[in-house]
Every structure is written in structure tokens, then in C-alpha cells.
Amino acid sequence: MVKVNEVTLKAAAYEDVKKIVKEVGILPLSSFIPDHPSLESITEHEQWHTGLETDPWLWRDRLPGDGVAAYGRFFAKKPLLISAELFPLIKNLLEEPYSVEERYEDGQLPKSAVELYQAVEDNEGIDVKELRAKVGMKAKESKSEFDRSLIELQSKTDIVIAGISERLNANGTKNGWNSTCYMTAGHWMELHGIKTNTLPTPEAKSQFRDHLQECYSSAAGVYLGKVFKL
Question: Which of 38, 143, 157 is nearest to 87 (CA)?
């Protein structure tokens, strides 16, 4: 297998990025992994925020909606796309062996994170505006705590960004910006027929280490090795 090379990877259309995500495995939106492609680096600046089918900003939500890639802030607090093929292994490495409730009781999670998770679990595909209302965090002063809890749950693959919902007015006409939607990672995987990875941690780490050595540059491998404590 040829190692990932961001110089040769270019996406002009949605079908291009679908192939690239499968090839790359981990595709951050912005370039922060050393010597590794990002959605930003494989597209032209002029493509972004046009609202057209060639807009990568729209692709980032379409990919999880189509089951091509999981989307979320899984590490480094940065938004990432992880291919459906690689996500079960990544989830195995990042997830906690204890439930959200058990982690709260152990002092590892704030109560707001538990309430957020329960609201998502009870309303799979909930959009962010409704989610803030459900957990009583609509006020501006609650935004920082809300965002921190969302990132914490994504970093352990408890939840993922599942796509977007369109804001519609009473007449059913689009009105305002689209809204990000969330699902539990387990539901997203089940929805798209993605099997869980149940390897014991040492074997899962070994499998991911082999993947890094085979597919990624040395610099990217070193960086991700530290992230996943390989």
C-alpha cells in the first residue's frame, strides 16, 4: 500500500473526498497532523463556503450522514473525519470501559456531560439548538460549559456529529443556517451497519501501530502514536 501523500491528493467533487477519506482513514478539517492531509489541504480555497455541491464545508456533514465517515472532535479538540472502516478501531482505543454515569460518579465527568449524553441518547439525531434547550443551557453564559461537555463526550467517542438539519419556517421553507446534529456513536454505527471492534487493548494498539507504519508518514505516525499512547 502506498503511504498517504497530501501533495497528490485533491478533491474537486464529493465523490473525490469519499475515496480520499477511505484511503486516508483520518482526515482532519484543518492541517494540524504533521505531514498529513486535511480537508483544507486537498481542496481549493475558492471551493469553501459557496453553498454549492463542491463546497467542502457541506461535505463535512454529508459524509457522516451517508455513513462514509464518523465526524467529531475525537482528539486534540479539533474536528476530524474518520473513515467508517477505521472508526471501530479508533473507538476501541479512545472509549472508556465505564459508562457515562459511572464516570460521573467517579468524578471523571461533570453532571452537564451526563445530561447531554442522556439527551442525545433519548433523541438520536437531535440538533444542537434543541439539545441546548433540553439540558437547560440556552443562555450565553452556559455556552462554554456546553461546548466543553460536547468535546469531552466526543473525545471518548460517546457521541458523534451525525450531520445537519435544515432550519425551516412554519411554511416549510429554509430559514437560517443549518444546525449540527448529534447521535451516540453506537447508534450511528448501527444505523450504517458498522461492526464494533472488540480486540483487547494491546492487540488494538498493535493493529493501529501497524496501520500507521504502513499508511502514514513518519511524522504523522509519531504524532498519532503519542495521541493514542502507543
Answer: 157
DSSP per-residue string spanning the chain: -PPP-TTT---SSHHHHHHHHHHHSEEESSS-STT---TTTTS-GGGTTS-STT-HHHHHHHHHHTTSEEEEEEETTEEEEEETTTHHHHHHHHS-SS-HHHHHHTTSS-HHHHHHHHHHHHSTTEEHHHHHHHTT--SGGGHHHHHHHHHHHHHTTSEEEEEEE--B-TTS-B-S--EEEEEEHHHHHHHTTPPPP---HHHHHHHHHHHHHHHS-HHHHHHHHHHTT-
pLDDT tens figures, 164-195: 754 433 444 443 446 789 999 999 999 999 99
Mean pLDDT of 84-113: 95
